[in-house]
Design goal:
- 2 copies of one chain form a homodimer.
- Chain A is α/β, with parallel strands linked by helices.
- In chain A, 43% of the residues lie in helices and 13% in strands.
- The interface between A and B is medium-sized, with 19 and 18 residues.
């Protein structure tokens, strides 16, 4: 059974697992949102795992930089781990900037049960938050190839993607997303 | 519950999963043995996954070479993936030369439910098999830092490790190993 949207766009997970891929600018709220979803999934008795882009960079991609080639390789490694977890029935919440459309499409094609979530906070808000002090450094020229500043973010084309959220991710998220995830039936 | 040996050294898996780490020279039979164990586990209804060193090198470590530092990083990446799978109740069969004692110990310390299996085929037999034409190339000087030729393999100290097997891995393996794995109780 594949994950599919029915009626109210509810998400149905299967025994084969599911990958929910949060994409968006740095400080857009991907990690916050994925953690909130994770907590709700755990409360509901699901098996879930967060693959955070920052953690994966440390653990599996220490040598990779931020060229397009390196970013794509980084995404493929995240995808490899997500896929193997998915095969074992895990709901995998990936949180990674993943700025290029093409590689996100590659992930979708590879995985089957795949939901892309565009965390659509505008650059101005992300830069104001600047949770990791990265925008400031990018503006100061200390970081090169920073997404949104001197490297592109390619937003998804499709309107069928789960609706984006703007502003405070948790408040919006509760309304728009989390109730849907709560409705994923548990398969044991 | 932790994996522990009882009486006849039977292995008990738990809901938290288990990592079985096959270490040994190239062509010693690690992959053959891990596949045989995998098939039996699947027949018995377990959730299992093989992490093969060659595959992981392609997927997660393309840039790594065969210096001690790179080999250790390679093992840590395999360990990262094994650990996350184990947390979801999977029996993970790792097949990797992993020639250095220290990093194998690091894996054991990190993982808890961990069984190290030394696939103890002597160099002469491995070199005769030479399944991937690597020993020939190493002897010809085409490959540098090849385990067993010009890079060390450090066998495990402990006699408590599951008994090593020599010669035809499948024949021996059936007698010595596979029956034990068959006895892992299934937890659903």
């Amino acid at each position: 059974m594949e994950a599919r949207s029915r009626r109210n766009n509810l998400f149905f997970a299967s025994n084969e697992g599911l990958v929910v891929w949060f994409t968006g600018l740095s400080s857009s709220g991907k990690t916050t949102l994925s953690r909130a979803v994770y907590n709700l999934l755990m409360q509901a008795g699901h098996r879930a795992e967060i693959l955070d882009g920052d953690v994966i960079r440390r653990k599996l991609c220490r040598e990779l930089g931020f060229s397009k080639q390196d970013r794509d390789e980084n995404i493929r490694r995240i995808g490899f781990v997500a896929n193997v977890l998915k095969r074992h029935g895990v709901i995998v919440l990936v949180s990674a900037i993943s700025p290029y459309r093409e590689i996100r499409q590659e992930m979708r094609n590879r995985m089957g049960n795949f939901i892309e979530v565009y965390v659509n906070a505008p650059l101005s808000i992300c830069e104001e938050r600047d949770a990791k002090d990265l925008y400031r450094r990018a503006r100061a020229g200390e970081l090169k190839g920073f997404t949104g500043i001197d490297d592109p973010y390619e937003p998804p084309f499709s309107r069928k993607l789960p609706a984006a959220q703007i502003g405070n991710p948790l408040k919006r998220a509760r309304k728009r997303w989390l109730k849907r995830f709560m409705l994923i039936p548990i398969k044991r």
